[in-house]
Every structure is written in C-alpha cells, then in structure tokens.
Design brief:
By secondary structure, this protein is α+β, with helices and mostly antiparallel strands. It has ten helices and ten strands. The chain has a six-stranded antiparallel β-sheet with strand order 2-1-6-5-4-3.
Amino acid sequence: MQLDQFAHALLEAAPDAVVVIDLDGVIRLLNVQAELLLGYPRDELLGRQLESLMKESARRTTRVAARPNRPRHGVYAIELLAQCRDGSTVPVEISLAPVSIGGVAYSIAVLRDLTERQRLEEHLLYVSTHDALTGLANRSAFDDVLVQLEQRGPHPVGVLMVDLDDLKKVNDRYGHAAGDVMLRRLAEVLRSTFRSTDVVARIGGDEFAVLAAGRDAAAVEQLAARLQDAVEAHNRQRADDDPLKLSVGVAVADSGVSVATALHDADARMYSMKRLHHEHR
C-alpha cells in the first residue's frame, strides 16, 4: 500500500472528526467523522474556514487558526460550540497540532464531541445538589446559597422553615413509602408557591427551608400565608389522602441580622408552632 493511501485510510478510520487547516484556517482535508459531526458534505467543508463553524459567541473570544489558548501535551485544546449545518450546535474540544507537509505548514485539528461528557457532568452536578426523593435542592446546595447570600446579598433575605407534621405517624402506620408520597406532595406545593429564583430545599427528613432574596418582613409573612393557603387547596383536591399539615417559621436577614441568624430564628419559630400543634391534639 502506498504511503498516501495508508495515511488516507488512517484518517478515515479515526474515531474523532479530523480536519487539516492551512495557516489561514482554511480546511484542506477532513475525514468522514467531520462530515457526520457537523452535518455537512465534504465538498461544502473543503475551502471553508474552520472558524466560520464556531458559534458567534465563541468566535468573538477564540481564534482557532491564529493563537490557540490552552497548551496540553504539546498540542492546543479549545472547548467551544461548533455550528452544524442544520443550525444546531454541538460542544466540542478542538485539539490543534502543527504539522509540515511537503515543506508547507498546516495544523491538524481533532474535534471531539463533548455532548456525552457534558451530559454526565450535568447529571452529576444535579445529583450532588438535589434531593433524590423530592427533586428540590439538598442541604449542601442550600448551605452554599446561604453563604453566597451572606457574603454578597442581595438583602433583605426572607427565610422560611417548614416542617411536615406527623410524618413519623404516617411512616409508622402506613410505611415509609406513604411518607415519601407526602414529602413529594409537599415539594410540589412548595414549587408552585415560590418563585423559580427562590431557593427551596429539603434540609432534613421532614424539614424544608426557603431563601427568598429581596423579600422584607411583610413580604415573608405574605409568603407564609400563601403557603398555608396552597396547602389547604392541595388538601381539598386530595380529600381522599391524608392531609398535609405544616409548621412554619419565618424571619428576615436585614439591618444587621445575618442570614444564618435569620435561619436560626425561623427554625425556633417553626418548632414553637410545632409544639403548639402537638399540645392542641
């Protein structure tokens, strides 16, 4: 087999998209994986600048042909969004390495599809920051936001502590599966009650917390009342199920009161309400 045939066979057999560009960034050679990745037939890619296949937002900050910006093992690696023929984008890592062919300088660009890696990273991030049962933020994510609000605001920050009453009785009487259903029901009510920008978290077995940035004392009291109204409406709709019963405590971080202090105060008020509920049963 002649050398050029062997090189062509290797290029076509590469598992990643490979293109060869000249010093002007113009594509001079490519393999079938590049066609499949970008959705272009080969004749539409040849003679085109590789940079033109970058999404506009990435193109403003990175020039592929001229000065790649991150060395890695003797090559340069750049992560960006490649623009496909159908208008969609695909996250790719482009690794660039210089090569001389017949005394002419070129660069070999290997385009690696990062879709699966990013999907896995997003999944791992979701799992690490969300409660598996309810889908709400978990305690770790809640604590992270609490620290951020403590340090950077905005203030005031409304804090609500919410306890699902009688969860242990439901678990003891019907089993933990029934208790899990009640926790998920409460999570649905909390989602529908608060803004998407509010942080709603499950921070313990039957305890939930809300951080509502920009809400003063009056607004937080209104939120607590709205939550109770939402629970009553939910219970009417689910009349055949055990009703949700909540103990709620509120506080506000403002005027010298830290978010951590407000959380402590809201927790204490929530437990006071919980004790009253037990005394009146």
